[in-house]
Write a sequence for this structure.
């Protein structure tokens, strides 16, 4: 089970079907795109060009993930679908998991509180989905939908790896036996997941995304006057929106000051005093940045944000929407003495030099910190006696951002 294999990949392009086949004896994995409405079947299947009429008619595209063999150390599968709005109406985007079958087990979606969390974390193989933003404006605005499937060679649970590896093997043997008994039998893949990506007219209701405030947007904010400003100065600082999918119903926006602002240094022993002194003249509501804040940002890269530690393969951080997922992830990281690595190119506003405290204890001797080692950004435990900068978080009322 732990032996590594060389894999040879061939790509076959069909009009409405993209198949990425990884040959391990007779094993393979593919993504199938079907059900595209209002679109010629001759377009690139990795691009979905929607056109919405002004009556808000919904259009959808099904993404079918079928994995014929899943096993520890399988080649990671990653697909990116570009969604572009060619129409003259703004559109809101969403997706839902329509059905899931794992071996012989159909998951009851009605009784699964968070299917995204289940697929990302409850199996030794991990299926993560990501919609870059929940709307696309008219006239060529775009968003992306990503899916990644991984099963690390050395995971967090060797017993579970062995159990599911055996289950997968037994399932394949049973399917081959059925085929041998009936040449017309359609062999089932070990895993089949159907995801419906939907677009409909954006009507600007309270539950729709607020188009003005996207994760990563830059806003100049005056922390003394507690309002948006236009020119950088002593109290007018550059900030970044760190909310994911801020909604019209939200009354405020969460802002992170640029890491290249003049942020003070401190040890943990002097952390609270240094923080209080730094923000003492601010009238804006603020708090200290936490590990939860950072996880809610970097987890949206479902390919390159990984948990790393000794004696395990890198694990995709994955979906953080589960009710207790951040706490469980924090515990896993500290138990593993692990770190979280992420790609600066995806999160340019997290590019930095130095060390920045997060207001979350790692263990008795360390706190979590945004750090840089060997030119790589990571979130890791740093000794309390170290000197790192602080990061305030501003809670800006939307009325003050006009």
């Amino acid at each position: 089970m732990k032996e590594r294999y060389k894999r040879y990949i061939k790509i076959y392009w069909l009009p409405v079907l993209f198949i990425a086949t990884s040959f391990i004896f007779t094993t393979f994995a593919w993504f199938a795109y079907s059900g595209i409405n209002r679109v010629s079947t001759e377009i690139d299947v990795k691009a979905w060009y929607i056109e919405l009429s002004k009556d808000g008619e919904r259009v959808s595209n099904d993404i079918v993930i079928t994995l014929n063999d899943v096993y520890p150390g399988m080649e990671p599968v990653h697909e990116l679908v570009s969604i572009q709005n060619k129409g003259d109406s703004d559109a809101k985007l969403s997706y839902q998991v329509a059905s899931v079958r794992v071996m012989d087990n159909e998951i009851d979606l009605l009784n699964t509180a968070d299917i995204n969390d289940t697929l990302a974390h409850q199996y030794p193989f991990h299926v993560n989905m990501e919609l870059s933003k929940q709307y696309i404006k008219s006239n060529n605005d775009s968003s992306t939908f990503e899916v990644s499937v991984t099963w690390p060679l050395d995971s967090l649970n060797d017993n579970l790896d062995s159990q599911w590896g055996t289950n997968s093997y037994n399932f394949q043997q049973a399917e081959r036996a059925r085929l041998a008994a009936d040449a017309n039998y359609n062999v089932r893949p070990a895993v089949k997941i159907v995801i419906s990506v939907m677009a409909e007219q954006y009507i600007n209701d309270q539950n729709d995304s607020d188009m003005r405030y996207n994760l990563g947007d830059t806003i100049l904010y005056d922390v003394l006057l507690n309002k948006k400003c236009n020119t950088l100065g002593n109290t007018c600082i550059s900030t970044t929106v760190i909310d994911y999918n801020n909604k019209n119903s939200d009354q405020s926006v969460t802002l992170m000051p640029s890491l290249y602002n003049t942020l003070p240094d401190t040890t943990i022993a002097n952390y609270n005093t240094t923080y209080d002194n730094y923000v003492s003249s601010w009238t804006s509501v603020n708090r200290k940045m936490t590990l939860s804040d950072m996880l809610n940002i970097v987890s949206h890269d479902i390919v390159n944000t990984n948990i790393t530690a000794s004696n395990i393969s890198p694990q995709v951080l994955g979906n953080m929407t589960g009710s207790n997922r951040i706490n469980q992830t924090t515990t896993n990281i500290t138990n593993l003495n692990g770190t979280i690595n992420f790609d600066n190119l995806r999160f340019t506003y997290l590019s930095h030099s130095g060390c920045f405290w997060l207001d979350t204890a790692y263990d008795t001797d360390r706190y979590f910190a945004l750090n840089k080692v060997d030119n790589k950004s990571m979130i890791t435990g740093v000794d309390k006696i170290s000197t790192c900068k602080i990061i305030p978080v501003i809670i800006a009322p939307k009325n003050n951002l006009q």
